[in-house]
Write a structure and sequence with these properties.
9 helices, SH3 type barrels, BPL_C, Arc Repressor Mutant, subunit A, elongated, ligase, 7-stranded mixed sheet, BirA Bifunctional Protein, domain 2, WH-like_DNA-bd_sf
Amino acid sequence: MASKGTAVREKILELLQKNTDGYTSGEDLSQLFSISRAAVSKHVSVLRGQGHEIEAVTRKGYRLLRKAELLTEEVVRQGLNTRLFGQCGVHYLPSVGSTNLEAMQLAFSGAPEGTVVVADEQTGGRGRQGRIWHSPAGCGLYVSVVLRPDIAPNEAPIITLLTNVAAAEAVHEMTGILPVCKWPNDVLIDGCKVAGNLTEIFLSGDVVSHIISGAGINVRPLPKRLVADLRTAPCSLEETAGKSISRVELLQAYLVRYEYWYLLVKEQGFALLLTRWKELTDVVGKELTVEVRGETFQGTVTDVSTDGMLLLQSSDGVEHRLFSGDIL
């Protein structure tokens, strides 16, 4: 539960965000919150300490120049329009081996659903099949969420597609560019990879105890030394959109879209999510070659099943249900 001081600062920041073209007077803030002008000044100082750039002009008041890039819980929750995701805990780490591993440890310790782990950099970021996800400081958004869905183990792979959709919609909201979802876990802009995700499923007996859903979104260009060994050429939001992108606002957009689809799936099942994923992908109907653990499958993609499997029909009429793999 946020303290009274935190709640006042959240409201002050919200008002400043709504009036970035003008100034909000300290007197107005003082009267609105029934606090002294000195208290207003102290709250503004705290907001500045969190990284928000706030201009103060005598006889005019305060104006927000740029929202903070610090991904701390207090900053992320300011203006976060969710009911669950991020509201029960945002664990910010300047540097971590892997946000998924950190979230896994929290989940095993009883962290509630919707707990978020976010970091400025990962020193051991992971993709599918043990691949490295390059996560240098300040270049991207690296985030994991604890989920505790009431679903069967065979349904759990659909979470990968859900994360795919949430990341794609957050990218669209921040840039105006509608990306493409590439099965099973990539988000592409003009054929270049801008985001990916890693879903890790944990069972208790024959039921799902929790799922860790991790995502990485490239906000700024990766250093050239990291690009050469990647299977798919990367791109970033700022270079494709041609403008500055706030990681805080991107994280908030991602959590809002994730929560929307996650709660919808809980209430109505997977059908609407799958329809949306298919709208964002160009894979259905294509002739593909897919490599799965060294074995190659060729055929036409006929559909994606309700449990997230790619349905690939070979030339001899055999249908292959693929849980994951690499499109060659």
